[in-house]
Write a structure and sequence with these properties.
There is one protein chain. This protein is mainly α. The protein has one domain (about 1-110). It is about 80% helix and about 0% strand. The longest helix is centred in the middle third of the chain and has 35 residues, at about 45-80. It starts with a helix and ends with a helix.
Length: about 110
């Protein structure tokens, strides 16, 4: 069970890192490689730069937030106790994962308001 939890959060970190790579390449607003953004953001160079910076910053933050539970789960695995994952721990990790998923949508909502 700890391996599965670590894997889920690791996938989240990888997806966040891919968003950062897309942003660093300046492709957030591209119709082919990027994400759905309003037309006025795609047409204005300053807004495109802001959109790329927003996604890069939030993607980096989210990747770090996703790696924290991975490190914790590795520590749980190394400890080798009989009941490594308790129900309260699962609830906290579930709420934490929901928080990360909510924060992942924020940069795209912010881009819509540029």
């Amino acid at each position: 069970m700890p391996w599965l939890i670590a894997l889920i959060f690791l996938v989240g970190a990888i997806v966040s890192i891919l968003a950062v790579i897309t942003a660093r390449r300046g492709q957030v607003t591209h119709s082919k490689d990027g994400y759905g953004v309003p037309a006025h953001v795609s047409s204005d160079p300053e807004l495109r730069k802001q959109a790329n910076d927003i996604v890069a910053w939030w993607g980096t933050l989210l990747a770090g937030l996703c790696l924290a539970p991975v490190g914790f789960m590795i520590w749980v695995i190394v400890r080798e106790v009989d009941d490594p994952v308790t129900m309260p721990m699962l609830i906290v990790l579930g709420v934490y994962g929901l928080l990360i998923a909510t924060l992942a949508a924020y940069p795209f909502e912010k881009i819509k308001r540029l």
